[in-house]
Protein 1
Amino acid sequence: MKTTRKDFIKSAAVLGIGSLSMSLQAKSGFISAAPEGIKPVNGKYSLPALGYAYNALEPFIDARTMEIHHTKHHQAYINKLNEAMEKEPSLKNMELEEILMNIQAQPESVRSVLRNHGGGHWNHSYFWTLLKTNTQMGPKFTKLVNNSFGSTEAFKKEFEKQAMRVFGSGWAWVLDQNGKLIIITTPNQDNPMMEMGVSPDQKGKPLLGIDIWEHAYYLKYQNKRADYVNAFWSVLNWDQVEQNINK
Ligand SMILES: [Fe+2]
């Protein structure tokens, strides 16, 4: 059955997820930081600007990795997504979040492309907003963490454990379930918005996520994923996370 935005809002309301305003972000009950470029213009998606230099995250994430990740990997997801949009003109009237929330209802000819490349575009657009050095965990997130995990240390340990458990490529997410934080992982470019791969009790508003694909860290960290995950704390934009709580 197709999930409409209205249905999603209803289920989000039942779960008490977020405060729902009429903005696109709130309408879905999901989007916590709709980045620039996430909406198609004339039926085409485009690469969003990072808003910071490729070397801004040094020495934790190197400039070369950021440039390739942004201009090659992210661009490739967008290119494939746009090819699917060309094949199925009906998609041009839908926003990406709507497509992803109803992925099973999309035409079979483009469904896997939408899942993998539409998911890739959304995930990366979201991820870029979460990166900035020299920020501190805010009071609202600290409170959520303490209520859900007991301490910041326990939260970080659990997040790192989950990130390390991702087999192959995927993402780890921190979701807000009406004041309770949960950590989930998704394979490939799936995300918590998608109806498959994420059970109902794993739904919630994403406050942050980490890209666990090797392309996010291999040049600097090679096979040492743990070092990359640990470095993530030094580039996580806690100001954005704090803002995401209110969206
Ligand atoms: Fe990536």
Protein 2
Amino acid sequence: MRLRALLLLTALLTVIPGMGAEETVSAFMADGFDPPLGLVGPKQYYRARGFRPNGHLGEDWNGVGGGDTDLGDPVYNIAHGLVVFARNYKLGWGNVVIIRHAYLENGQTQFVDSLYGHLNEILVQEGQQAAKGVKIGTIGNNRGMYDAHLHFEMRKNIRVGMFRSSFPRDYSIYWDPSEFIAAHRTLAGAGTTAALPINTFPASAPPVVGAPMQQAEAPLVKPSAVPVLRRGGSFKIDRYDDLR
Ligand SMILES: [Zn+2]
């Protein structure tokens, strides 16, 4: 009887959110984070719009040619991780991929979600382990809603999923993507694994925090007067002001 009670308790702890017990899968630790575009090939990209708390919660990366000149260009996974979302969410999002990464910070295991929006194609599946640098999709324009670009977010809170409106829109939930990447290019933990939490997203929308987030994005600014992410074999940070 005691064993049965223990099993029941274990099952309850597994399914009740907030009880501390979570489903996990074993996944490789990130050994460093790279930008999602422009690591290989001749194309150049610039950050058309940056991260702004309570405003734009990610970065828009665009080809320097403007317009749809970057439509179909490859988008790369920024670090080893697990694909936790890969669907067409429609609305202002279109095709979205979210990858969850475990990494070491001061000896502690931390988690972060990277989000890639408006993709023309999705080339990974939910539940798939994805190595750093793997092509996970291509730059899209959400069926003509925008000039083709990559909307890219990094979330320190791994419970947001597609319900941004239910969470604060600030640094308590998000990282500035370029700042995070610049500070985490090379990390300890290569070749080791971590227990990565899964099924952390709400199944339906939790209560909204503050005003609802707008779905559509404004037109992109032209590439003039913004830093260009130039091609570089090793992609050294100190060569790219936009990654500071
Ligand atoms: Zn955006």
